[in-house]
Amino acid sequence: MSEHLARYLETLSRTQHELSSGFRALRRGHPREPDLCGVCERLAAQCRDHAERLKPFLRRYRSGGPRDPRALGAETRTAGLRPPGFEAPRLETASFDAGALDGGGFDAGGFDAAGLETADLQRVVRAAAERERAGVEGADPGTARRPRVTPGRGGGDGGGLVLLRDLHGLYLLATECDLSWSVLAQAARGLRDDDLLDLTRHCAPETAVHLLWLRTRMSQAAPQVLAVPRSENDDKVRH
Amino acid sequence: MLDRIADPRGRRTPYGPPDAVERLAAALPSHMRDALPSVIRLGSPWPVRVDVFLEDGLAEQQVEHWVRAVSAAGWGGDAIDLAVRGGRVAGVRGRAGDRVNHGRLDPREWHAWQPRAERLTRPLVREDGRLVEATWETAMDRVVARSRELLARPGGWGRLAFHTGTRLFLEEHYTLAVIGKAGIGTPHMDGDTRWGAAAAAAALAASFGADGQPGSYTDVDHCDALALWGHDCTASHPVLWERMLDRRLGPGPPAMIVVGPEGTAAAGEADVHLAVRPGTNVALLNGLLHELIAGGWHDAAYVAAHTVGFERLWRVVEAYPAKRAAEICGVPVALIEQAAEILGAAERLVSTVGQDFLGSNQATAAACQVNNVHLLRGMLGRPGAGLFQLGGPGCDALEAGSAADLPGLRNWADTGHVRELADLWNVDPAVIPHWGPATHAGQILRYAEEGSVGLLWITASDPAATTPGLDRILGREDLFVVVQDPYLTETARLADVVLPAAAWGERTGTVTGADRTVHLCEKAVEPPGEARTDLGILLDYARRMDLRDRDGRPLVHWTDAESAFEAWKACTRGRPCDHTGITYERLRAGGIQWPCAPSSSHGVERLYAGGRFATSPGHCQTFGADLATGAEYGEERYRTGDPGGRAFLHAAEFEPSPEVADDQHPLVLTTRRAPRRFPVRLARLGDAVPEPCLEVHPGDAAVLGVEDGDLVRVESRLGVLEAVARLSGGRPGAVVLVLDGQGEAVTRAAEELTLTAWDAVSRRPLRTAVAVRLLKAGRRGDASLDEGLCSAAAHLGRGAAVRPEVTAAAGGGEAPERYEEV
Q1: Is residue A233 within 8 angstroms of chain B, CB to CB?
Q2: pLDDT at residue B705, rounded to an integer
Q3: Higher pLDDT, B8 or B272
Q4: Looking at the whole model, is its pTM more than 0.90?
Q5: Interface predicted TM-score (ipTM)
Q6: Average per-residue pLDDT for chain B
Q7: Domain A2-74+89-98+118-138+158-227 - what CATH class?
Q8: Distance between CA atoms of residues B173 and B153, nearest Å
Q9: Which residues from chain A sit within 8 angstroms of residue B789, using beta carbons?
Q10: A contacts of B655 (beta carbons < 8 Å)
Q11: What residue segments make up the domains of chain A, in order of their start?
């Protein structure tokens, strides 16, 4: 049973990483949207933190952990402080792309609702993860340095529709996390694992805010993008 | 003429607090106060002192007549009289009987009324790339033709946008709101308030349910403690500052806490001055709230009866004992304890929150924490307990709806509010933009840049002078720019049609000051040439556009300022900003505060008396948002946790920002723009781009081994820039980047360096100081060092699509002919 839970936890952890990379990719992909500044980094950091906090539970349930989860209570309670043993060297980003934790059954990127091309987001997310891996070791990705020269105009964003699609994709990812947290809360109650329950109580509201934020941002962007087509060959009345 | 700048304390009028009877009288509701003798009824013990500034050589007896007006210098809403002689404004005088200023004038007042150069007298239209004079008929025809053509396209409402400044009258703001929101139906209306008053309004609405300053200026008379939160009162509200200072010099002076940088007059005057590290305001406030609660200084009964969220607030601030706050903020712990003691012991506390809070890291959250101080101590709605969130001018724009909000402090997400407006205007509710949050100013410019907005109408604002790169957006071939302004501003030079507007003193209307006092500002002289009032231009546009309601009657049915005000009154009925009891007739006798119902002789002096707030679901202006991300909670959630007229105690963790200096980035960088020279030039390929200059304190330079003229790399957590060091800095630990005609690439790099955050709730960028480190990059003149900036400029030159006449002639540097005198 706990093997199933372990797999489920792994999937959640992976989705949180994807979401984290996705928020960062969103920021990078749309440098001309000023309101993404700060917020995306913040949300990315939260997602990363969620995955980080899941780690002790992964260990607990993966290798057929002890019957009584309370025996491990002391260990997890100090997990926030990250004692030396828990400082896995940037395991999470690497494992996300290498698929080392892929337990199967929950394929990432199972979101192709609304007939949108999700390939773009996937590509952006992957590229962001790759860039990060190639980046300075040990540098906090939240404060990754930008190129020295300000990019000129455009900066690679393809207008509102791309933004809307990226937000849409992230929303679906976040929904997955949201769902997982509520399911995990149930499981934690069933297992009488108070630590896991505390974790879901901490993370679920944050994920709920992620969803709200994505929805808010989409509702800002959607009407203009969808209802006001950009005029390609404008018939000018300029004199 | 009195020179008060040279001798600011020359004519002080010290005074003490009113006695207990008067305080009791001040607390009565207005209809009961009317029964009292006038000395007690209207009494403020602040002595009257009439300031007069007249043209040199002019005596008061020579003035032909005096005309009621409102301060044009600041935005405190001081009542003044204009001296008219020979058809010109020849001086100003403070109005003795007014409740706001008691005769005093802002020292800058006369300067603000001086005529400036480049006054527009005729409409201009663009012909063959040049602006030429035209008739009103031609100019308006072009605007209307373009508007109609855009509206006829799919999604026409989304193709027109309005950017409005703060120098319109209430009537004009409202007329514009009706044209935009009921006639055209565009959500793209915003303006200069986004960078100032919006954060203050957002904080007030978040805590109390609706915008509107809770306090009254007379609270300064009653208070026994004053707290200035990041508010340089001397600079932004000199008359209010005089009132505070007069209290401090009189008997029974109030204690004073000042949070903000060193070197201001307020900092020198304070009993407790907290020079916190830039960007750590929330940590300081959390520390103070911790001390207040832990010390048992909060009013537990008030908190229980009139607020929600106390447990959560304590959970957050519990982690901020004074010691921790002191470490984060870089101030002695004793000072925080002292400040908490003053706040905790005060019986009547007045707070003013200024730009250093509302324009800094976690702006709305920090401002909400000040609201929390007042809520915890029950310091609202009674004499001496006042709170002012002073973000910037333009509360008229926010109330009347020419900015992003719906008129009358209504909630766009509340279908009931939208229906109210639809009934009032007799239009289909579907026309009123309520399908999403209104577009903020930055986003409007983004849409203009992307090409989905085809007409941008800029009124009484000059955004091109302050926003780098805007000239290119405004220069787009597919964007039709209308500028309505008294002056030929930088923005006007880029317009397709320029409409000359009348200035203050040349038209009539009302202005609302910082404590909700509405004043009448009347026409004293004729506008020059063919210039028209802003109201006249808007009414003309509405008529030409043939905007009609559901029954085919004109949508904008008023004809002058007074009838526009009557229309506005109907819009405010039942809302927090009720103006229904105010008339022009009554305003001629003096300023009146809103809300003012017809039954009362003067408005409600203090909001939220008795702890009743504007938070009930059908009444509130917002359904709330997450302070950190701006994520909107939505109606359903709000109704579920119905606060029922109680205020929100919003909790916020301190979050470091790139603004906060640390060991890695020990210096604090600010930018300064050198005075702008006409014309604006865009960097082009082959142009020599001068490096920006960086002022460094010689002491810091010595530590870093940097000499005068060296090229240095400035690194923040956000970006990198190279600049030439000048050892002329005035303060150790601070460096100043001086931008002077570097063109867009460098300006943008500087912006990127200093764009420290986005205030998600008020939706404004926060460009503040930023923590940086300096690295010596080499001696000046090393060839390898120039490549960064030049390549940026080259990139720009290729990408730029500019109208030929906007770009200066290469090399010459003299002014190109962009505007032709006819």
Answers
A1: no
A2: 84
A3: B272
A4: no
A5: 0.84
A6: 86
A7: mainly alpha
A8: 27
A9: 149
A10: 42
A11: 2-74+89-98+118-138+158-227
